[in-house]
């Protein structure tokens, strides 16, 4: 095994293959702040939330952030500085104070774009953030590696847009475990990107307690974790950005925005497990009609994780307030909780009102792993999440479940949940495990059918459908006798939530209806 002195010496040398290296920066040296996509915030629901909240809009004010950056030509800061100074002049960082912890540096365009997506004015979800703490990635990793226990780092939200390895799996695991330890101990919400492209890099993207981020295009590894637990699902969430380095701070900005509401409005939610559960439950599949889980033991889509970042959904879940588990009370159709497991299921009853449908239903739980003997021994409890039908407060058949034994997150997503009473059940063989849960049923009218006619040609437009399902179109001349006219499959060529069908109806009156198994 390499000693710490060996690691320090090899890192200082820098020539490839260095023991700690930035994969992301290699492909983005020419990318400037202005190249970042301006419309990703619209996809994330930010503009809608702005219109909804108006002058009460949140902006991350008072939430300190931290970033660690791999050196690019010796530069790791979004501004050149040798000490804690306000960012000079106007621009997206005006009014922010950046504290460097790794000495002097000229401006890094990579760090500039990362910080811009985290808290830059007109470029992020949290432009009100003013206190920024910056580390060189080498120094950050070695500080974790060289201290037992690891020290606390300034920053309620932290982003680490780099990928690499120290060349020794035991040291990689120790660094990653110490990152998880400080999340659990200090309560920081941390975002870590996957590598760009197909190969899974080691270190922080594998962390259990961070929020691992990919890109909407899917240009990131799909092999999932490869360190300290093989095959855990990564990413947790995706963002419409060109590179994972820029997607991760976008999620960090969303976390800062939520913390701006949590402090002091919802102090019980001031925990990285709650923030992570809310962001996962709020992730949207609207622009990802092909999103699906391959089975109950897989929490996410194999490429897109829980889906696309959506701060509008996340805010609504948070603002619904804490909804504690109960076997005798109905909770809201959206909300969150912090609770502990016991020998029996923790249940959260909710209702989809008669005459309404849950156009989408999303729920997530997450919990932490625990260490002993420093970080040499790890224990991860196995929690399960189920969505069940209910009559009064008696639970019935299972609608869906997520039962991964490898991940420390479970996620359920359904389209077109019919009216009725349901319960979310959290179970575990381990007692007293603290978990966070978040859920949201977006109420609507369910699948819709519209009819247009041109001469003898009748065309049906179908919307709000569930991908990967077969629907039957039935026709009737009198609203009394019905017969099947056609079947429509929403995934014959590519997954879709819409479909069209036409027929020659002739001169007679025809009525149509849509039939499917919910």
What is the total domain count?
3
Estimate percent helicity: 10-25%
* Global shape: globular
- How much of the polypeptide forms β-strand, as a percent range? 25-35%
Q: Which runs of at least 5 residues are low in confidence (pLDDT < 50)? A: 1-37
Radius of gyration: 25 Å
Please summarize the sheet with the most strands: 8 strands, mixed
Mean pLDDT: 90
Reported CATH architecture of the largest domain: 3-Layer(aba) Sandwich
**Lateral strand order in the biggest sheet:** 2-3-4-1-5-6-7-8
User: Alpha-carbon distance between the termini?
Assistant: 56 Å
Oligomeric state: single chain
| Tally of strands | 24
Ordered list of secondary-structure elements with their pairings:
Blueprint: H1 4-13, H2 23-26, H3 40-43, H4 46-53, E1 65-69, E2 85-86, E3 97-100, H5 109-119, E4 131-136, H6 137-145, E5 157-160, H7 169-186, E6 189-193, E7 211-215, E8 237-239, H8 244-265, H9 272-282, H10 311-319, E9 334-340, E10 346-352, E11 357-367, E12 370-372, E13 377-379, E14 383-391, E15 394-402, E16 409-417, E17 420-428, E18 434-444, E19 448-454, E20 457-463, E21 470-476, E22 483-489, E23 499-504, E24 511-515
Parallel strand pairs: 1-4, 1-5, 3-4, 5-6, 6-7, 7-8
Antiparallel strand pairs: 2-3, 9-18, 10-17, 11-16, 11-18, 12-13, 14-15, 14-17, 19-20, 20-23, 21-22, 21-24
Helix pairs in contact: 5-8, 6-7, 8-10, 9-10
Brief rundown of the structure:
With 518 residues, this protein is an alpha/beta fold. The protein has helices at residues 4-13, 23-26, 40-43, 46-53, 109-119, 137-145, 169-186, 244-265, 272-282, 311-319, and strands spanning 65-69, 85-86, 97-100, 131-136, 157-160, 189-193, 211-215, 237-239, 334-340, 346-352, 357-367, 370-372, 377-379, 383-391, 394-402, 409-417, 420-428, 434-444, 448-454, 457-463, 470-476, 483-489, 499-504, 511-515.
